[in-house]
Amino acid sequence: QVHLAESGGGLVQPGGSLRLSCAASGSIFSIYAMGWYRQAPGEERELVATVTSGGRGNYADSVKGRFTISKDNAENTVYLQMNSLKPEDTAVYYCNAAGRLISRSTFTSWGQGTQVTVSS
After folding, report:
1. In tens digits, what is the pLDDT along the chain, a chain of 120 residues?
2. Cβ(87)–Cβ(14) under 8 Å?
3. pLDDT at 32
4. Strand pairing of 91-101 and 114-118?
């Protein structure tokens, strides 16, 4: 009942930048938090960054100082600005959202994922 549409992935050289976007739609009453996770081949999915509706951000140590997460509450959209990208940032990036539906049931939803490749 909640759909997450991701965009912004692609191929970038080391040191470059990308901006990911994720828009949530559906029978949403409120969103508590949105975030980004990533999964590299052969690895488990890991947290990259999350942001609450109040704007408080939380980052993995590996991306602190390089990535910035932000959220547009009115549009139920979360962004991830990724700077100084490294080859080890290569992964499929997944958007996540948690909150309440109009029915007052809680939800947690995942996007389909967007590929980010950092390579020269």
Report:
1. 899 999 999 999 999 999 999 999 999 999 999 999 999 999 999 999 999 988 899 999 999 999 999 999 889 999 999 999 999 999 999 999 999 999 999 999 999 999 999 999
2. yes
3. 94
4. antiparallel
d(CA 34, CA 27): 16
Residue (of 53, 45, 54, 51) closest to 67 by Cα position: 51
Contact 7, 18 (CB under 8 A): no
Work out the number of other CB atoms within 10 angstroms of the CB of residue 62: 13
Closest by alpha carbon to 58, among 96, 25, 90, 22? Answer: 96
DSSP string, 10-46: EEE-TT--EEEEEEEEESEEEEEEEEEEEE-TTS--E
Task: Calculate the alpha carbon distances from 118 to 6, 12, 67, 90, 115 in Å.
Answer: 18, 5, 14, 5, 10
Which two three-digit tokens encode residue 78? 């979360």
